[in-house]
Design a protein that fits this description.
The chain is an alpha/beta fold. It is built from nine helices and seven strands, in the order ααααβαβααβαβαβββ.
Length: 265
């Protein structure tokens, strides 16, 4: 049996191993999410896949050794002492709330919510270059395609806020009521489905300002109908905000949709 503490986080960056690890695409995401959430009760959602990823590395480095799951789990625990210590945007030391970051890009939402005292407990972004930049910024590798059930299965329970800058495809709503089922096949449907399953206290959605007038306003009305009536959230009228009005040197107008879970009395 190998001696304990044989591996470090930098070993997972070995190019040959990363090629070998493609058969387990969620492994790197699960490992980094496990390490960054081991103190807040969320790590259990990532432990199984993280342990498997560690086991794969051990088998790669020590092909002549018998690597058990117990051995991999012990190594996983040692890795908690080898955190990414040089990330430019670490989470707050005493977070006030938990949030998830969907369609994360390179982490604009995350930076804002961390500055407000939030702890990100799940991230999803399918673009490989954005994933690489996100990991460099925050030390976590995002999970991939959020439309896949395998990706949704990693989303933890009991987070407070859902953040999503979802792309907006056209809805087929001609002659329909514009309810939850009418959004199937769009990325908004996946956001709505996650809200329906997890029931966060609030959500914060962002899109291009053209969403307000898309299909003469029918698309936005469908979205608001789903959020307000099907999912039963309080959603005030969306607002278009320009980044240049908040000290950012960029003329960038976006529509923001916020919602709050209705209390049950």
């Amino acid at each position: 049996m190998i001696d304990q503490r044989k591996i470090k986080l930098k070993d997972f960056e070995d190019k040959s191993f990363k090629t070998n690890a493609l058969r387990n695409p969620d492994g790197e995401s699960a490992l980094t999410h496990y390490i960054h959430n081991h103190k807040n009760g969320v790590s259990g959602f990532y432990k199984k896949e993280a342990t498997s990823h560690v086991k794969n590395l051990l088998e790669y480095k020590y092909p002549d050794e018998k690597i058990t799951s117990n051995c991999a789990e012990e190594e996983l625990q040692y890795l908690l002492f080898d955190k990414y210590s040089d990330i430019p945007f670490p989470p707050p030391k005493k977070p006030r709330f938990k949030f998830i970051d969907l369609f994360a890009g390179i982490g604009g939402f995350r930076l804002a919510f961390q500055n407000l005292g939030g702890k990100c407990v799940f991230t999803s972004e399918w673009d490989k270059y954005s994933q690489k930049t996100y990991k460099a910024n925050y030390g976590e590798h995002p999970f991939g395609d959020i439309t896949k059930e395998s990706t949704k299965s990693f989303i933890p329970d009991n987070f407070d806020v859902l953040c999503a800058g979802f792309p907006c495809q056209a809805f087929s709503i001609a002659g329909k009521k514009g309810g939850f089922e009418d959004t199937r096949g769009t990325l908004f449907f996946d956001v709505a489905e996650i809200i329906k399953r997890k029931r966060p206290k609030a959500f914060f959605l962002e899109n291009v300002k053209g969403l307000r007038n898309h299909k003469s306003g029918k698309t936005l009305n469908t979205i608001l109908n789903v959020l307000r009536n099907d999912l039963n959230y309080f959603v005030p009228e969306p607002e278009i905000i320009n980044a240049k009005d908040f000290g950012v040197p960029q003329n960038r107008e976006r529509i923001f949709i916020v919602g709050f879970k209705r209390s049950r009395s």
